[in-house]
Amino acid sequence: MSKVVKRMMINSIQGALGDCREVLVLDASKLNAVEANKMRNTLRKKQISLLGVKNAVARRALSEIGLTGAADALTGACTLVFGGEDIVALSKELTEWCEKIKAIEIRGGAIGATPLRPADVVSLSKSPGRAELLSQIAGLIKSPGGRLVGAITSAGGKIAGQVKAIADKAS
């Protein structure tokens, strides 16, 4: 393959990834056409993309954009999986598909220069996603204020009740 063709393939992979800095590597070579299309269409609805790649070209394309952690996972027939809300949502989707279809195998992935082994992807899929973490943080931020309001209103309610009882006795 000529250098010009390789550069075009590298640019194509980098263009498809865009500014995505999380990628998972999947072996989907044993999927039949029907299962592959069903999986691609379902994942496409969730803004998750699958890209079949040539390993040497993918290794070079990923290293140029800082995703050096995925280099070890690029062996054999590989498909790059990227997109979605975040890496947690991506790993949840892929582990669900691996449970449904046994022919799929997660090879690993990368978050920037940090490599992910298949076991890391599975454990990542069990952790809370971005939306869940943000709601937990919001709850923690809101909690002290809620307790303060509760303390003020409960004490105020007791005082108002006692003042009213005294006023009723006086009348």
Account of the protein in words:
This protein is of the alpha+beta class and 171 residues long. The protein has a 5-stranded antiparallel sheet with strand order 2-3-1-4-5, with helices on both faces. The model has no long low-confidence stretch (mean pLDDT 84). β4 and β5 (114-116) form a beta hairpin. It is built from 6 helices and 5 strands. α1 (3-17) packs across α3 (55-64) and α4 packs across α5.
Summarize it.
This protein is α+β, with helices and mostly antiparallel strands and 171 residues long. The protein has helices spanning 3-17, 33-45, 55-64, 87-100, 118-125, 130-170; strands at residues 22-27, 48-53, 78-83, 105-111, 114-116. The protein has a 5-stranded antiparallel beta sheet, sandwiched between helices.
Please bin the fraction of helical residues: 55-70%
What shape does the CA trace take? elongated
The count of DSSP E runs of length 2 or more, i.e. the number of strands, is 5
> Strand pairing plus helix content: what structural class?
alpha+beta
Distance between the termini: 101 Å
